[in-house]
Amino acid sequence: MRTLLTGTICTALLSTSALAAPAPAADPSAGPFGGEAAFRSTYKELVETNTTLSSGSCTLAAERMAARLKAAGFADDQLTLFATPEKPKEGGLVAVLPGTSKTEKPILLLAHVDVVEAKREDWVRDPFTLIEEGGYFYARGTTDDKAMAAIWVDAMVRLKQEGFKPKRTLKLALTCGEETTYAFNGAQYLSENKRDLIDAAFALNEGGEGTTDGKGLSEGGKLVVQTIQVGEKGVQNFRLETRNPGGHSSKPVPDNAIYQLAAALVKLHDFDFPLELSDTTRTFFAKTGAGRSDAMGKAMVAIAANPADTAAEALLNTDRTYHSMLRTTCVATLLDGGHANNALPQRAGANVNCRILPGHPVEEVQAQLEKVVADPGVTITPVPPRRPLAKTPPLDPAIVGPMEKLAAKYFPGVPVVPTMSTGATDGVFLAAAGIPTYGVPGLWQNPDANHIHGLNERMEVKSLMTGRAYLYELVKTYTK
After folding, report:
1. How confident is the model at residue 22 (pLDDT cuts 50, 70, 90)?
2. How far apart are alpha carbons 2 and 32 in whole angstroms?
3. Measured CA distances, 151 to 38, 59, 442, 476 (Å)
4. CA 392 to chain centre
5. Over the stretch 298-335, which tens digit does the pLDDT of each residue have?
6. For residue 309, is the peptide bond before it cis, meaning its omega torsion is within 30 degrees of 0?
7. Which of 12, 188, 221, 297 maximizes the CB count within 10 A of its CB?
8. Can you tell me the distance from the alpha carbon of 480 to that of 398, in angstroms, rounded to the nearest whole number?
9. What is the pTM of this model?
10. Which domains does the chain have, with CATH numbers?
């Protein structure tokens, strides 16, 4: 097993202590729904490994998953652990199951193992103890993104133990840093420094999902849609700042740094970036709208047919998700200013968070913001880090088709719709490196997003087990 220490790259054997606790073996004869006990063990170990930036270790999580893969029969040269001397706890893992074809490019399975911070005093249950209750698993990371990480590890273990010989080489990358802007990002590191290690025709990632009608299926709810993420917005923060000589507050003047900044932010509040549809979003609105009989559904169909339909746009803009899917958005998220309660402010600033439609560079958005603000006294500066330009992968039938076909088997009668994420995933780094990345369906959430990033995050047990079966069969379909 290789351990890569970036900065001064070296190759070494992983210490045997990391492999001291081999994983329970999955039953290779049990079929797609078998081996549940082994999978639960993998999921539990991963969820209960604290991987927050403040007090956890992604490196430990990666080592534990590597131990399970090694116990299943993966050779040392098929497992690569990586970390940096500066960020030793923010490492990750790449595993490779070699294929038989010398011409077919590999497939990459991607998942991040880091999680958002969780304070025990705020939670009803211990956020790092997996608890099954009322048809749900509760803990930080049960959904985002350790469900997918555990499913990918489980799939690799089962394929290896079955003696399955994939035509395409299958790769797995477990990374850190997705949840924290300024952390070491494993997907970015691999795509920029170890491109050959993760080279693939395409990657499967988080981002696609199903949605219920408000209740879990175990509670009598209904699955209303499954989505395939085909593209995502880029993310860029900007610093808006005003400066002023200031002075004594007893003698105010119209030229005030806080008022000047406030005026700029009001202009931004009143501005909408122009509507723009891609192949993904046009298909999303057409297919989703066709399945609805209300005014919103008609507006969705209308906008897909004619993006200049202002009446349809006005109605869609009343829904925050649809409004964001139709355009680049920029919103103020942080404020600071002044230096004393009895002094005129010498400086005022705001962070503006932009979610940029694919294909639009940061410079273009910055120029638009400067045009909207129209005040040379307000500086607008991109805030590091600067992510790559978001790119939308093609709606390739060879990739999307198997997802749709299997969804019809596992979720009969449920529409499968391509969608563009208005958030962000690590897929943006892979796309920049020339690896098209798709968010897979299979799992599902309630409309409350299962409290992802919030208190008492949860995953419906039935969703996890069904998603495991669906994704295992999907991976096998692609690699045959």
Report:
1. very low
2. 31
3. 11, 19, 11, 13
4. 15
5. 999 999 999 999 999 999 999 999 999 999 999 999 99
6. no
7. 188
8. 13
9. 0.90
10. 2-221+391-479 (3.40.630.10), 234-383 (3.30.70.360)
